[in-house]
Design goal:
- By secondary structure, the protein is of the alpha+beta class.
- The protein has nine helices and twelve strands.
- The strands form three sheets. A five-stranded antiparallel β-sheet has the order 2-1-5-4-3, sandwiched between helices. Strands 7-9-10-12-11 form a five-stranded mixed β-sheet, with helices on one face. Strands 6-8 form a two-stranded antiparallel sheet.
- Strand 11 and strand 12 form a beta hairpin.
- Helix 5 runs antiparallel to helix 6, helix 6 runs parallel beside helix 9 and helix 7 crosses helix 8.
- About 0% of the residues have low confidence.
Length: about 475
């Protein structure tokens, strides 16, 4: 019921139903009033004529027999009617037993006003028309204290009214059905462009920036489609420009990094030579030689990291997969870098996964090195998981990661200066580790556990990337 089609149908049906019921009610009321007015007029005129005829030569005061003749004479033979007459307090003398609808209020009104009156009365569930008139004598219209009544049932009129009401109500049903049909047609005409816009917006969101819609007509929906097409064209142009700029930027970084490798290798060799000769140098030259070697080394690592990032951005990173024992790979990584005795290991044997050993070594080196440089001992490396995935946790006992920095830990050039000691790295290590994990179909999460420190969790699928 929340859909536009359902709401249009409901609105059409409500409006059509209200209009049909209003029209049917007005027609029914008008027809009923006209029918009753015609019946009343006919009966009143007939009654008045009969009373005038029957009382023209009536003796006054009338006896009981005269009253009975008067009561019998005013009731037409073709109607199932009851006539009645009364003289002062003689009591009603009737031609039948239907005198109940003759109310005391009607008798009192006729006696007081001395003119013909009638009213519709429901007695015993049956509608009646009751007509009463005083008998006036002579040309001066002198009251005679004689009253004549006619009680006529309105069964036929009531049946006609019921039939008229049923016909009016039955006429509403086709109107409602037609309203539903028109609502569906109108909803189809309105919703078709809306559905096209929805599908086009979905395609646009999925990256199909060349999506366009055909403009037909000149209404609001057509203007909306025109606006959508203009927006899509502007978005395609902007995205194309941004993509070109991104490609140029990546190419620039890759080219610069590649061009720097050769001169940096030469500079590094000379820096190492200066450091070897630092013991023979005098004054500040020895310190300058060692600082030169350190900074050149950092610059070389930065260039290597930039080249690795550029390979990820260009989609050129590839995996060389092997079936590897995870515990052995972690121990080998720590031994190579001289960290084996600086970390507590909980590495159960027999956990083997399909992965690229070189890239896994880069991930572990970045996580453990980050904990050793920025955290506090003890640094713990724990291996777990199940048949579907392997989980490697690297935890330190430091102050943890600044909560404001947690969402940005894996961003490029992100450093934890606010929470830990100043880093001398490039800020690309964790970003490269995350890219390598994703390349394997895994992930890396970071949190500040309740016990303190920082916890990095590496999750890799046992079967390797899909």
């Amino acid at each position: 019921m929340r859909g536009l089609r359902a709401r249009l149908v409901v609105v059409f049906v409500l409006l059509a139903g209200l209009a049909a019921l209003t029209a049917a009610g007005l027609v029914y009321r008008q027809a009923r009033d006209l029918m009753l007015a015609r019946t009343e007029s006919s009966l009143v005129n007939e009654f008045r004529l009969r009373v005038a005829t029957l009382t023209e030569n009536m003796r006054h005061p009338p006896d009981r027999a005269a009253l009975q003749r008067l009561a019998n004479g005013v009731a037409p033979a073709f109607l199932s009617a009851t006539g009645a007459a009364v003289y002062r307090d003689s009591g009603l003398i009737a031609s039948g037993d239907r005198t109940g609808p003759i109310t005391s209020a009607l008798r009192q009104g006729i006696a007081t006003r001395q003119r013909l009156q009638y009213q519709r009365v429901i007695s015993g569930g049956t509608p009646y028309l009751v007509v009463g008139t005083p008998v006036l004598l002579g040309s001066r219209r002198t009251p005679s204290d004689v009253q004549v009544y006619l009680v006529t049932p309105l069964d036929t009129e009531a049946a006609d009214q019921d039939a008229l009401l049923a016909a009016a109500l039955n006429g509403v049903l086709p109107v409602l059905a037609l309203a539903v049909l028109l609502a569906l047609l109108a909803a189809g005409g309105v919703l078709r462009p809306v559905r096209d816009l929805d599908r086009a917006a979905r395609r646009l969101g999925a990256g199909e920036l060349d999506t366009r819609l055909k403009v037909s007509g000149g209404d609001e929906l057509a203007r909306l489609v025109t606006t959508f097409n203009a927006t899509a064209a502007a978005l395609e142009a902007n995205v194309s420009e941004l993509r070109e700029m991104e490609v140029r930027a990546r190419r620039f970084v890759a080219d610069v990094s590649h061009e720097l490798r050769t001169p940096l290798a030469s500079i590094l060799a000379m820096a190492e030579m200066f450091e070897e000769e630092a013991g023979r140098l005098e004054g500040d030259l020895a310190g300058a030689a060692r600082l030169l070697n350190l900074e050149v080394g950092r610059l070389v690592r930065l260039v290597e990291d930039l080249m690795e990032i550029s390979r990820f951005d260009a989609g050129a990173a590839r995996l060389v997969l092997n079936d590897v024992d995870v515990a052995d790979a972690i121990r080998a990584c720590l031994r190579t870098r001289g960290w084996y005795g600086r970390a507590e290991l909980d590495l159960p044997a027999g956990v083997r996964i399909r992965m690229d050993p070189r890239r896994f070594d880069v991930i572990v080196a970045n996580l453990v090195g980050n904990a050793l440089r920025h955290g506090a001992p003890p640094v713990t490396v724990r291996l777990g998981g199940d048949d579907q995935r392997a989980v490697i946790e690297v935890r330190d006992a430091g102050v943890g990661v600044d909560p404001g920095l947690l969402p940005h830990v894996f961003d490029r050039f992100s450093k934890a200066d606010a929470a830990r000691v100043r880093s001398d790295g490039s800020g690309l290590g964790l970003a490269i580790a995350l890219e390598n994990a994703r390349l394997h179909g895994g992930s890396i999460d970071v949190a500040n556990p309740p016990g303190g420190g920082a916890l990095f969790t590496l999750t890799l699928p046992v079967a390797g990337p899909r």
